[in-house]
Amino acid sequence: MTTLQTEQHGAKAHTDGDWANRAPVQTRSDRLKSAEIADFPAVTGREVNWKYTPVAEIASLIDGTLEAATSALEISEAAGVQVDSVQMDSELVGRGGLPEDRAAANAWGQVGTAQRITLTSAERQTVIVKRSALTTNPTAAHTIIEAAPQSDTVVILENTGTANLTETVEIIVGEGANLKVVSVQEWNDDAIHVASHNAVVARDGNLQHIVVSLGGKIVRVNPSIHLDGQGANGEAYGAYFADAGQHLEHQVYIDHNAPNTRSRVAYKGALQGEGAHAVWIGDVLIRRVAAGTDSYEENRNLTLTEGTRADSIPNLEIETGDIAGAGHASTTGRFDEEHIFYLQSRGISEDEARKLVVRGFLFDVIQRIGNEQIEERLQAAIDAELQQSVLA
């Protein structure tokens, strides 16, 4: 007697590898985290966190040999600020979170030492961290910013000049501390910058993270904020202006991992010129333990000319029904013609009206920096961008 063996159509293993053990990651928190580059598979550009990135142009940062760049930082003096270097095998390294992609792990394994900035002042201090002494050689860096309990500090990271850099910035916010970290990218036109900002916020701590990306050929800054203490607050804001051929990417992750936590995410960008590309991915995870969470994320893009592309992907994952609120929004489009008409009715030309709308659109984020000198400089840089644009 012959027995007919049947199987479900489409259930056979494919020829592309270990199909049975390659189920996709079901939740953002399950993404691989490791300081070992060998733990990450080779990047093909099809992965969920690389699919919008020009990976061929940053291959040397993902897999290549890297120079260390910790000495390239210039850090201003302020009360309650201590700066030192620590070895990467120290227990002080990794408290902000381990790498979540191959480029970050490559930097982690080759940088050797981390630059550690400790903040202890209870009275608000401002620390300026400048970096402008890099080269076009593939480079690794690692910076730790640690805010002691009850401290209050603004740290501004200014990136200028040329670069071919992959780095991790760890941010540790102690109980009841207030910390604002501002990362400004005003690189030269040929610069490449890939950065992971990993943050943990303790009980009743407050982190405001601001990214402003204007210069550079390829800039990819990914903040990952973990609200691990009850009552922790995390805010992530961003402003960017992409020109022809420029790739500006920001992947934001907010992890609500304690009760009564709060988060706000707002990124705004303008694009002009053929091939200008902006990518924003916003992941918010509200875990089962995070009862009482209040969260909202949004991304807004203004396309000023033809030939631009803006990818905007908000993701919201909720594991508990006991929340105060959660939502997300994403828009990409041209000018609001009613705004333009209103300004024209006040005697302002159409071109100038369009420029005013862009300035106001981005300045909503830039004014959060709280440093008048830097805000004025960034506004001047945006004005210079607009001078080159045909906004009719």
UniProtKB/TrEMBL annotation:
<dbReference type="Pfam" id="PF01458">
    <property type="entry name" value="SUFBD_core"/>
</dbReference>
<feature type="domain" description="SUF system FeS cluster assembly SufBD core">
    <location>
        <begin position="139"/>
        <end position="361"/>
    </location>
</feature>
<protein>
    <submittedName>
        <fullName>Iron-regulated ABC transporter permease protein SufD</fullName>
    </submittedName>
</protein>
<dbReference type="InterPro" id="IPR037284">
    <property type="entry name" value="SUF_FeS_clus_asmbl_SufBD_sf"/>
</dbReference>
<feature type="compositionally biased region" description="Basic and acidic residues">
    <location>
        <begin position="9"/>
        <end position="19"/>
    </location>
</feature>
<feature type="region of interest" description="Disordered">
    <location>
        <begin position="1"/>
        <end position="31"/>
    </location>
</feature>
<dbReference type="InterPro" id="IPR011542">
    <property type="entry name" value="SUF_FeS_clus_asmbl_SufD"/>
</dbReference>
<dbReference type="GO" id="GO:0016226">
    <property type="term" value="P:iron-sulfur cluster assembly"/>
</dbReference>
<dbReference type="InterPro" id="IPR000825">
    <property type="entry name" value="SUF_FeS_clus_asmbl_SufBD_core"/>
</dbReference>
<dbReference type="InterPro" id="IPR055346">
    <property type="entry name" value="Fe-S_cluster_assembly_SufBD"/>
</dbReference>
<comment type="similarity">
    <text>Belongs to the iron-sulfur cluster assembly SufBD family.</text>
</comment>
